[in-house]
Amino acid sequence: MGRRGKLVDPEARKPAYIMMSMATIEGIVKTSFYAIEDGIRHPRTSQVRGFCILNKGRRMSSYRRVTLSRVLKISSLMILFLIVLCVICLSVGSVSISPEKVFHFLSGALTGKFTVSSEEELILFSVRLPRIIFAGIIGAALSLGGVIFQAILRNPLADPYILGISGGSALGAIIGIVIGAGSFYLGIPLLAFMGALATVFLVFVMAGGNRGPLMDNSLLLSGVVINAFFSAAILFFLSIVNSMELHSITFWLMGDLSNASIREIVIVGVCLLLGFILLYAQARKLNLIVQGENTAQHLGVNVEKTKQWLMIVTSLIISVAVSLAGIIGFVGIMVPHLMRLVFGSDHRLILPVSALFGASFLIVADTIARLVFAPAELPVGVVTALCGAPYFIFLLKRKVW
Question: For position 46, what pLDDT does the model report?
Fold first, then answer.
């Protein structure tokens, strides 16, 4: 009650600057929450803590809310684009096959009327189609790895190749080749996965994970050091193998998709599918982590456990991909950046579109590798490096992060 018997709101007794501060804090919290949930970013710079992608000239209205229907619509368009691209790549090669015949052969296979009755059908279903499917799965796996590591480290230059996980997987796979583990079922992929897990453990230890919270820069620098060590170990094994193993290992280290078979496709496909489901379940937590670990912690995210879980799942996907296809660099750097330029930084959308576009990119790169010196072939890693190195330099010059 006031002096004259009137009811007085208790909030009115607070000083004006306190009321203003409370309103300001409430507005900031609400704005940050809605920005994280809806994927809305600054109208001139699509900025996330740790990296920033320049989108000059765009208006706030151009950033649409990320909903399930939008994710499904964009993913469906990307899948349609991937199918058309696969048909085109199936029709080109040292032996040209018209797209009409490709459609005829594929429709016959889908309707159960498929019979390998010609040389073109044999080339299509025994050589090109398994290789294209394999290339698409590997490209999707590498792109997912780039998205996850760039998010949890909040660094645009982070990908499995730079952090050393690909090197660890490659070292494990090469050890398996030298000791003859290929004679056992899943012998080489298992050793590659163990190499990737060993890399994760070493990176965490060197970054000081046992002494407190992990620092992003420490993780990145530790990965570079570990990668250098594994490169030296790979060179050691290359110096002690015979000439036949040396040629195959050297070609494999530059990325080799020529040995695609049903077994390899099933193994890496199952790992990619399970890994994508596990990673996509963490998409909202990733959106919070890229805004800042303190913000994510205050909103209920166990940042350290989430980062460790994401690194283990991603290392599984990458280790299997590297063990079967070799080291293919720069895919994990280029694809996530290009997708963020187009679709923003919400991981509920970036994860599926990056996987689909990464599949398309590696299919095209492998097709170019088959065509440049046909009937001879280039390692697909050479083509991706020729595309990735200029883009890497572009990022450094423009500082697009």
Answer: 38
d(CA 73, CA 67): 10
Among 32-46, 69-83, 359-373, whose mean pLDDT is lowest?
32-46
Cα 149 to Cα 233, 308, 310, 316: the distances in Å are 24, 11, 9, 13
Measured CA to CA, the distance from residue 164 to residue 161 in angstroms comes to 5
Please give the DSSP secondary-structure letter assigned to residue 212: S
Q: Of 236-240, 272-276, 320-324, where does the model show the most confidence?
A: 272-276
Tens-place pLDDT, residues 118-156: 777 788 888 889 999 999 999 999 999 999 988 887 777
Angle at 21 between CA 20 and CA 27, to 5 degrees: 90
Residue type, 111: T
Task: Answer left, alpha or beta for residue 95, where phi above 0 means left and psi between -120 and 50 means alpha.
Answer: beta
What's the CATH superfamily of 133-398?
ABC transporter involved in vitamin B12 uptake, BtuC (1.10.3470.10)
Q: Are 118 and 342 in contact (CB under 8 A)?
A: no
Q: Would you give the DSSP letter of residue 214?
A: P
Any idea what DSSP says for residue 207? Answer: T
| Full-model pTM | 0.79
Among the listed residues 206, 180, 202, the one whose alpha carbon sits nearest the alpha carbon of residue 191? 180
Q: Is residue 54 classed as helix, strand or coil in its secondary structure?
A: strand
Task: Report residue 31's pLDDT band, with 50, 70 and 90 as the boundaries.
Answer: very low
- What integer is the mean pLDDT of 208-213? 58
Cβ(125)–Cβ(97) below 8 Å:
no
Q: What is the chain's Cα-based Rg? A: 25
* Residue of 59, 87, 46, 84 lying closest to 350 (CA atoms): 46
Task: Calculate mean pLDDT across residues 89-114.
Answer: 78
* 318 close to 142: Cβ distance less than 8 angstroms: yes
Yes or no: say if 349 and 70 are a contact pair by the CB < 8 Å rule. Answer: yes
Nearest to 324 by CA among 372, 252, 384: 252
| Backbone torsion region of residue 186, taken as left when φ is above 0, otherwise alpha when ψ lies between -120 and 50, otherwise beta | left
266 CA to centre of own chain: 19
